[in-house]
User: What shape does this take?
Amino acid sequence: MSFVLDCPNCGSREVTDFGFGGEVTTRPTGRPEFKELNRYVYFRDNKAGVQREWWVHRAGCGEWFLAERDTRTNEVIWTARPADAPPARAAAASEGAPR
Amino acid sequence: MSGGRLAENGGQRIRRGEELRFTFDGDSRVGLAGDTIASALYAGGQRTFSRSFKYHRRRGELCGCGQCANSLVTVDGAPGVRACGEPLRDGMQVEHQNAWPSLELDVMRATDLVGGPFTPPGFYYKTFIRPRRLWPLYEKVLRSAAGLGKLRRRQPEREWRTEYRRRHCDVLVVGGGIAGLSAALRAAQLGADVVLCDEDVEPGGSLLFEGGHERARDLAARCREAGVEILTRAPGLGYFDGLVPVWQGDVLHQVRAARHVAATGTLAQPLVFPENDLPGVMLAPGALRLAALYGVDPGRCAIAGVDDRALETALSLHRLGVQVAVVADLRPDADSELTAALETAGIELMRGVTPVRAGGSKQLAEVQVGPVDPSGRLRGSARRIACDVLAVAGPQAPASSLLLQSGARARFDDTLQSFLPQEAPPLIHPAGAVAGHADAESAMLSGAVAGAEAALALGFGEREDRDRLASERAKLEAEAPTVRRAAPPAKSHDGGRGKAFVDLDEDITAKDVAYAAAEGYDSLELSKRYTTVTMGPSQGRFSQLASARVLGEVTGRPLGEIGVTTARPPWTTVPMGALAGRPFEAAKRSSIHARHRDLGATVRWAGDWRRAYDYGDVEGETMAVHEGAGLIDVSTLGKLIVRGPDAGELLDRLYPNRMSTLKPGRIRYGVLTSESGRISDDGTVCRLDDDTFYVTTTSSGATAVERWFTWWMASWPELDVTLTDVTQGVAAMNLAGPGSRDILAKLTDADVSNEGIAYLDGPQLAIAGIDCLVLRIGFVGELGYELHCAAPQARGLWDAVADSGARPFGLEPQRILRLQKMHILVGQDTDSETTPYGANLDFAVKLDKEQDFIGRWALEHYEERPPAQKLVGFTCPGGEVPTEGAAIVEGDRVVGQVTSSRRAPKLESSIGLALVEPRLAEDGASISISDDGRRIAAAVQTRPFYDPDGELLRS
Assistant: This one.
């Protein structure tokens, strides 16, 4: 695995500079049922395609940011601070679109 | 005798008159500046460079460019250096490898003389497996016989490390031959940022020794002018999704390019005939390099080949002043300008013949050539030709590893008699000979096309550049290769004895491959694994096609069906150290570390830190804390400042207990849990003022906790809070023991009485004139004050406290002291399954708080169920100290494990912590510890071994 990510702070760097925070999950609101809790804690979509995920610039500024990446090709579609990230649904619609 | 130097010539690298002295096996030798080790040895008359891997046969110059195993030598004690690629330096000590007692007289040669017929592939596997009990003995003998070269038992301290360099560019060109240079030049002219890497000491590829050196140097100069960064002696090691590591001496360039041009050229190929490994049988470019680059007269040459390359080699050698005896061309009908030129030069051309045997005792003396039938057997009689060198030019093979690694497919081309890479992925552009454009002009054109394609694809260039590319592409396609090449037989021979090698690295003969095929290993992948053909240091460069041909002949399949395997990275042999690089995580030492060194501390690793384990007297240091006062450096603790109006809210969301209710100047213990309710870290939180909290973490968890906090902060942008990691900037030391209050009183005017600084108070005071945060906590179980101050002032504070009577104690005494109190070490006394309930930290979980927090739902679930394991203390009445990690058993069943154990000098007993099934978590329960064959009886204790009610802590 080898590709480049754009840190919103530092710019384009090798993937080895970053820590992977896993795919973005939604924390249940209110008190979840046991099954829902189990799903939230242990299950991931493990999508073959574009997924939204967390990254941290481990060897750099330490910033946490979001990215959408195609897990099949490692193409990074965008990176952004959480506040600047496109809403999840719109992003899914524009899969593969240039940044 | 042959081997002197030829007349001067513009292409030579050597500088006459600049002599370099070196030794070979202790004998002093002389070479010239610009020589390789091999060219200097050859010029001095040395023909045998090494002994072969299995049969210990003499091996000499072969490829001339550092790609085969023939020239492996030991240089200044470092084995595995390729003499024909390594520039000569003054004072080098060169030694042969793989021969004993000497290169000339090698007793292991017996394996060749008697062992040959008895050691077919698989011999060692089949023979030494019985009887099995003798294998250790066999192994000892075989291991000492195997391998090439010997590492020194003690390596000198390495003063250098490989540096990593990251280089992002638009276009990376791998290979600096004419195609590569042409591609780099065009891409750079179009405005791209271009890097070109090449294995040789200068770019130019085969132009350098085929009379084109001026053109090569001119092209390289133009590239530099256009801004191309040229890396020499820098092979590209492999293709990793667009990243190409380029190794250049002490630097590993990690080159990331948007587009790649693979201009990796072709590899010369041998011919297979009996005794084809005699020193003197060289690959054609090897002989040419010797003569053209190093001005070495190789001696009287015969040339054997299958296409025009043999004729060109003969003419080039002739032009350089080398005596050429004869050219043996396998084609029956060669007739061109080249044949006419040979005639003019007075070089005899034999058509339709190929070598069927080489002869000579220590080196080549003659070669026998003759016509052969399709199976390779001599028809009629052979002619003996006396010569010193036989330059063989089999059908060149594209050096396609990089392309194949990137996902291209290899297809057999009947005209070229080789596998051409096809369907390269769009980000990589093949150029030159590797793409089938072998002659200089079409290679130049194909390079320009590749360079333009790469640059234009990246948005460089104008409309006219596109038009130009289109016309060049058309021209290139129109100039389809017109190579006429004969297909060589798998092995040509005269029916007599003698080994015909397909792989010189591994000593694999044509017969071995056929034998393996007869045993059922009849595909290339199986043959490779069984015979080890192509698995030597040259990674099949010179053996893959030869062995595939044998396999094709034995199995009756065409070469195209046999296929090729993809050589995996690295392309070139690299020292392990070149890949190890400089570690990103530097060893850390606290700002007080110099004091520990002065005191003769035993320093050990603790995570990334170098820490004082003890100062030579564990028991004395432990007792000092009980009886007087001790001082330990705890600067390694993670330290975070959480600040902002929502700081309390953030901590309430992350900790299972309440932090927002802390009063300024007070401290609370906190355990961190994951969403699954498992313990991830612990530490203390001190509220400095309304908006500011000072959070400490475990030493090993500092980074993870900082990342955990910042991650949740990124997820909760609504919180107005910031986090500053001051782990490195703030030092800390723990002053502990009944005498610590008196010591503190000496160093400050503040009221240090039990009312002035109560248990869990966190005042900010000047101690010895240094601003400190004083945390009254008790990890070690005695009255104690953790003093936090700016790191640069910590040594002064340490000195002041130590001079007032506190005895330094190390990590080991601290471990004993905390164990007496059953204070846990996260990660040692807990594992990834341990919940706060299992670790008796129920007091730190407040499920009655309204606030939702990380792990709450899981903890609500666990609160109602007994944990799978519970942490308990135990004592061993027999005084044994079980190994940490030892199992607790009931009969044959494992019911828990020891997590910590020590002998406590104060208690004069053996104590420990263990994770056990909850039913055993009762005072007095007896457990049995299985430790390395022993059974140790122990009794469970649930309350701390020392000061169970914490009276000492609070007083």
Observations:
- The mean pLDDT of chain B is 93.
- DSSP finds 26 helices and 46 strands in chain B.
- The first helix of chain B runs from residue 37 to 43.
- The longest strand of chain B covers residues 163-174.
